[in-house]
Structure formats: structure tokens, C-alpha cells
Design a protein that fits this description.
This protein is α+β, with helices and mostly antiparallel strands. It folds into two domains: about 5-55; about 80-200, Acid Proteases (Cathepsin D, subunit A, domain 1, Beta Barrel). The chain is built from four helices and ten strands. The strands form two sheets. Strands 2, 3, 4, 5, 6, 7 and 8 form a seven-stranded mixed sheet that branches. Strands 1-10-9 form a three-stranded antiparallel sheet, with no helix packed on it. The longest helix is centred in the first third of the chain and has 25 residues, at about 5-30. The chain starts with a helix and ends with a strand.
């Protein structure tokens, strides 16, 4: 049986439309699977491009260099560090901090606006103040007193280090314990009480 050229063209065109309809129907039925395949392919391509961009270059972690940037306060030396402190018998949280590199026992105090150093701890950290530096009068639970305002190069607790921390130094004998106040704590990403423990995160 032979068909005219016109008939063959009609049959061929009908076949093309039928094939297109079948492909469309399959696409609708398997849309989610196809979407997942395309997503994986795009993700792989993006990863490959990123890898090629850094080819031959050393890979470094996104952490600080450890050197303070003079003129602007750096929030911390490293990022993503979490420290948990347990409460002492009196319910207060104590930690061994490093102030300007010197080990000092501190009590965490969210009610203190500044890190407050005892006169003796300030001297241990290499911070020397004179009587004329005590220009500011403050009211505390123990009454009124005078403080000297200073800036600490760094304050660190178990790997969490904050630079350029504003602090107060109490007069001789005014403070028995150095307080870790909000001039340090507010620079952290998180300060949270959970299950009787204090969590610090930068």
C-alpha cells in the first residue's frame, strides 16, 4: 500500500505530536524524581566550580589570626567555641580567665556593666593605676566607691578570647573577686543558663 506525500506528511506530523504528548505526560508523572536529579546535578556542578576556583590554594579555616586589629575591636579570637561553666556551692559561676595573658580567677556577673578588676588582680595583669586615675564614682551593693577606667588588650576563657575590653579597676581592697561583666559577655554570640550550667558561645 502506498501513500501520497501529503498523507505521509500528515502521519509524520501526527507521530511527532504523539511523541511530544507522551514525553509531556511522563514529565508530569515523574516530575519530583526529575527535579531531584536536576538538583543533584546543579549542586555537583556548583561544587566542582568552587573546587576549581580554589585549586592549588591552601584551604584555611575561618578563624581569627590571633592579632588584634588596632583601631577597631575584634569580637573574638576564634569562632564557634562553646564553654560550659558549672555553678559553685553558692550558686555563682567562676572561671579561670586570662586577662592580658595572666591567669585570674573571675566570677561571671551579668549584672555588672563592665569587667571589674580588683586592684590586686589588675596589678597581676600588668595594669597599674595611680590614685588620680580613680575619677569615677560608682554605687555597688557594698556602697559607693571610685573606679579607674581602662581597656584590656584581651580577656580569654578556655579559647574564647575577646579583644579591647572596657573594664574598671576598683580601689585597693574594694573588690575581693574580679567580676566578668557585660563588656565581655555582650560581645559573645550566646550567654545562656541551661540545667544549672552557664553556656558561653562565640
Amino acid at each position: 500500500m502506498s501513500f501520497s506525500s501529503g498523507t505521509r506528511n500528515v502521519v509524520a506530523e501526527a507521530g511527532m505530536w504523539l511523541a511530544a504528548a507522551v514525553i509531556m505526560a511522563l514529565s508530569i508523572v515523574y516530575f519530583e524524581d526529575l527535579k531531584g536529579i536536576f538538583a543533584i546535578g546543579l549542586k555537583s556542578a556548583h561544587t566542582q566550580v568552587a573546587g576549581d576556583t580554589n585549586a592549588g590554594q591552601p584551604r584555611t579555616a575561618l578563624v581569627g589570626t590571633g592579632a588584634p586589629n588596632t583601631g577597631s575591636a575584634q569580637p573574638s579570637l576564634s569562632f564557634g567555641k562553646v564553654v560550659e561553666l558549672g555553678a559553685g556551692p553558692n550558686g555563682h559561676f567562676f572561671a579561670d580567665a586570662r586577662v592580658n595573658g595572666r591567669r585570674i580567677r573571675v566570677m561571671v556577673d551579668t549584672g555588672a556593666s563592665l569587667v571589674a578588676l580588683s586592684y590586686e588582680d589588675a596589678a597581676d595583669a600588668g595594669i597599674y593605676v595611680t590614685p588620680s586615675d580613680f575619677k569615677y564614682r560608682v554605687s555597688t551593693a557594698n556602697g559607693t566607691g571610685r573606679i579607674a577606667l581602662v581597656t584590656l588588650d584581651q580577656v580569654a576563657i578556655d579559647g574564647i578570647t575577646v579583644y579591647d575590653v572596657r573594664a574598671a579597676v576598683g580601689e585597693r581592697g574594694a573588690l575581693t573577686t574580679t567580676l566578668l561583666g557585660m563588656s565581655f559577655l555582650s560581645r559573645l554570640k550566646r550567654t545562656e543558663m541551661r540545667n544549672g550550667r552557664l553556656i558561653l558561645e562565640n
